[in-house]
């Protein structure tokens, strides 16, 4: 067999082995499915986050409060929560839900693009935010204390 052909065959084999190794490495380090979100969980997280953000956009803190985690509701009463929003009435003008990452079986993060009003001028501030949600009694709740920081 001519030397050039043997060299090409060796390169081809090394390329296949290298590509196969990358695939195996990727599969081994993908978290074993722990970070994958099922379609049902994805929908449930999006519904909770969307409901919370829509209530905020609608300037309805009483509806937002219903989406909060137990830990957040223990930090502030519904009346105090309402007063915070009356004192500082900033709310999203528009939002778009992004990628969900499962942090644990009962904790997820959700990226959100939010258009905030710019306080000093009449323009909008486009920011990527992150919501943290926790699963309580099969319902995804907003962990407000850990979100939007």
Order of helices and strands: HHHHHEEEE
Fraction of helical residues: 40-55%
Largest β-sheet summary: 4 strands, antiparallel
Low-confidence regions: 17-34
Helical stretch tally: 5
Q: Determine the strand fraction and express it as a percent band.
A: 25-35%
Q: From the alpha carbons, calculate the radius of gyration and give it in angstroms.
A: 23 Å
Give the mean pLDDT: 82
Read across the widest sheet, the strand sequence of neighbours is: 1-2-3-4
Number of strands: 4
Shape: elongated
Strand pairing plus helix content: what structural class? alpha+beta
Distance between the termini: 65 Å
Give a quick precis of the structure:
This protein has about 150 residues and is an alpha+beta fold. It is built from 5 helices and 4 strands, in the order αααααββββ. Helix 2 runs antiparallel to helix 3.
Structural write-up:
The protein is of the alpha+beta class. It has five helices and four strands; from the N terminus they run αααααββββ. It has a four-stranded antiparallel β-sheet, covered by helices on one side. The radius of gyration is 23 Å and the shape is elongated. About 12% of the residues have low confidence.
List the helices and strands and how they pair.
Blueprint: H1 3-28, H2 39-57, H3 61-67, H4 70-75, H5 78-87, E1 94-104, E2 107-117, E3 124-136, E4 139-142
Antiparallel strand pairs: 1-2, 2-3, 3-4
């Amino acid at each position: 067999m001519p030397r050039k052909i043997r060299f090409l065959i060796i390169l081809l084999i090394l390329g296949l082995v290298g590509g196969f190794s990358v695939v195996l490495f990727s599969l081994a380090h993908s978290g074993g499915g722990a970070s994958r979100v099922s379609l049902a969980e994805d929908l449930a997280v999006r519904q909770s986050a969307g409901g919370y953000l829509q209530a905020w956009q609608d300037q309805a803190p009483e509806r937002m409060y219903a989406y909060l985690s137990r830990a957040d509701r223990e930090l502030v009463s519904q009346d105090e929560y309402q007063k915070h929003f009356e004192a500082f009435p900033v709310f999203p003008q528009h939002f778009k839900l992004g990628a969900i990452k499962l942090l644990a079986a009962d904790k997820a993060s959700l990226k959100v693009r939010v258009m905030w009003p710019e306080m000093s001028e009449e323009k909008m501030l486009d920011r990527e935010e992150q919501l943290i949600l926790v699963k309580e009694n099969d319902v995804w709740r907003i962990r407000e204390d850990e979100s939007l920081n």
